[in-house]
Amino acid sequence: MYKKQTNRQLTIYDFDQPLGLTMNPENRWVKKADSIPWSVIEDKYAALFSSDRGNIAKPVR
Predict the structure, then answer these.
(1) Distance between CA atoms of 12 and 14, rounded to whole angstroms?
(2) Nearest to residue 59, comparing CAs of 45, 48, 51, 47?
(3) What whole-number distance in Å separates Cα of residue 31 and Cα of residue 8?
(4) Are 46 and 2 in contact (CB under 8 A)?
(5) Residue 59 contacts residue 46 (beta carbons within 8 Å)
(6) CB atoms < 10 A from the CB of 12, how many?
(7) Mean pLDDT of the chain
(8) Could you tell me the residue ranges of all domains in the chain?
(9) What pLDDT, on a 0 to 100 scale, did the predictor assign at position 28?
(10) What whole-number distance in Å separates Cα of residue 11 and Cα of residue 2?
């Protein structure tokens, strides 16, 4: 069983630290995460869990 969660992942602009630290948008990992089509991957992943029984699967991201 898979339940799709909407807007679960924060953007780097919404990611606030108590000390005022921010994430650099030029960071290679931030760029990589932005280049991955997460919604397409999640749709394909969710299709693997068509049953309504069992534990809920972990989110793709």
Answers:
(1) 5
(2) 45
(3) 18
(4) yes
(5) no
(6) 13
(7) 79
(8) 1-61
(9) 93
(10) 23
Contact 6, 59 (CB under 8 A): no
The token duo for 6 is 């909407």
pLDDT tens digits, one per residue of 19-45: 777 778 898 988 898 898 888 988 888
**CB-count exposure of residue 23 (10 Å: 0-12, 13-18, 19+):** middle
52: left (phi over 0), alpha (psi -120 to 50) or beta: alpha
Token pair of 8 as six digits: 């679960």
Q: Which residues of the chain form beta strands (DSSP E)?
A: none
pTM: 0.59
CA distance linking residue 45 with residue 1, whole number of Å? 11
Angle at 12 between CA 26 and CA 10, to 5 degrees: 150
Residue with tokens 């932005």: 34
